[in-house]
């Protein structure tokens, strides 16, 4: 196995011959087409040799079909992919979008805002209790934590991470909101975060993004939050002056593997994702995690079709939990 990237944040390249439903798939170059035809088993994980974990996928159909290797000792197990100390996935090859639950934090509570407006709070819940409910309902591979207060005030609060860690167990945490320096980012990784989303600071200077890449590598996800056609910063209260395409160009130049793109006017509205925006971003070749307005698995399927790697669900999940 080797990590080839292919613009998808380090997706694994499978180099052996694979027997899939009695059809041979030779070498990694054929895995792209495999995305449209192979259905793997529910919560599957491919493991190489002595159960060294190298890939993951998830089938919405929950079928029991498996992939058998004819040249390596690969087996199907559970799902979760660890490589170079970061979490990634094989959605780019197997056509499965990673659904990531979101927990937004304002003050001491979990909240949801409508369109990022701090004066339009849809609900408040005790943070630890809400995280426990989300994890019990979803058993996710990754939990997205946003310190809204940190994003607005310019300083991520370390206690937000520690409080979530106290109840999240082994679930990897992706955190964002007010991460302004590579040193802060490094400290959060050392404190146990798995992935970090950086927005405002990544666009502060032309060199800023490169410095974050040098400091935390593939753990970096750049936030491209689109408001009124431009990338918003500082908790969506200011503008970078960049179009989404210009922002992605900076990301690619700096070596960023993944972006977290939010259509601000859809966020918290249950209005459906901005497919036009995400389609444009996916054509650039960078891995795209979409957020804003995602309502259900039909929306997730639509995001899969246009090439998104992941989809974040916040308000829809809260409704499913009966919060409001």
TrEMBL record:
Q: Which Gene3D superfamilies match?
A: Aldolase class I
| InterPro entries reported in the protein's UniProt record | Aldolase_TIM, His_biosynth, Isoase_HisA-like, RibuloseP-bd_barrel
Pfam families tied to this protein: His_biosynth
Protein's GO biological process: L-histidine biosynthetic process; L-tryptophan biosynthetic process
One cellular component (GO) term of this entry:
cytoplasm
Among the GO molecular function terms of this UniProt record, one is: 1-(5-phosphoribosyl)-5-[(5-phosphoribosylamino)methylideneamino]imidazole-4-carboxamide isomerase activity
**Record family assignment:** Belongs to the HisA/HisF family.
Q: What's the protein here called? A: Unannotated protein
Give the species: freshwater metagenome
């Amino acid at each position: 196995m080797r990590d080839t990237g292919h613009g998808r944040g380090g997706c694994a390249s499978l180099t052996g011959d694979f027997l899939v439903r009695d059809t041979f798939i030779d070498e990694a170059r054929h895995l792209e087409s495999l995305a449209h035809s192979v259905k793997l088993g529910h919560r599957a994980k491919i493991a190489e040799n002595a159960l060294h974990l190298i890939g993951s996928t998830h089938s919405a159909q929950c079928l029991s079909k498996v992939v058998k290797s004819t040249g390596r000792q690969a087996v199907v197990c559970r799902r979760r992919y660890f490589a170079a100390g970061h979490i990634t996935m094989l959605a780019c090859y197997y056509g499965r979008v990673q659904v990531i639950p979101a927990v937004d934090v304002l003050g001491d509570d979990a909240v949801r805002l409508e369109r990022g407006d701090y004066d339009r709070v849809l609900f408040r819940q005790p943070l630890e209790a809400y995280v426990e409910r989300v994890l019990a309902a979803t058993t996710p591979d990754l939990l997205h934590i946003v310190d809204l207060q940190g994003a607005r005030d310019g300083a991520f609060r370390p206690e937000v991470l520690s409080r979530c860690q106290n109840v999240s167990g082994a679930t990897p945490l992706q955190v964002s909101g007010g991460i302004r320096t590579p040193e802060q980012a490094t400290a959060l990784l050392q404190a146990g975060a798995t992935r970090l989303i950086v927005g405002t600071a990544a666009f502060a200077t032309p060199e800023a993004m490169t410095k974050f890449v040098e400091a935390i590598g593939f753990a970096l996800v750049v936030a491209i939050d689109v408001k009124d056609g431009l990338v918003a910063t500082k908790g969506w209260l200011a503008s970078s002056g960049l179009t989404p395409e210009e922002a992605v160009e900076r990301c690619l130049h700096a070596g960023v593997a993944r972006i977290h793109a939010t259509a601000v006017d859809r966020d918290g509205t249950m209005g459906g994702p901005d497919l036009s925006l995400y389609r444009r971003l996916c054509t650039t070749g960078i891995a795209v995690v979409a957020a804003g307005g995602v309502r259900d698995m039909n929306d997730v399927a639509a995001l899969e079709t246009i090439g998104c790697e992941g989809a974040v669900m916040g308000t829809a999940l809260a409704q499913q939990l009966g919060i409001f």
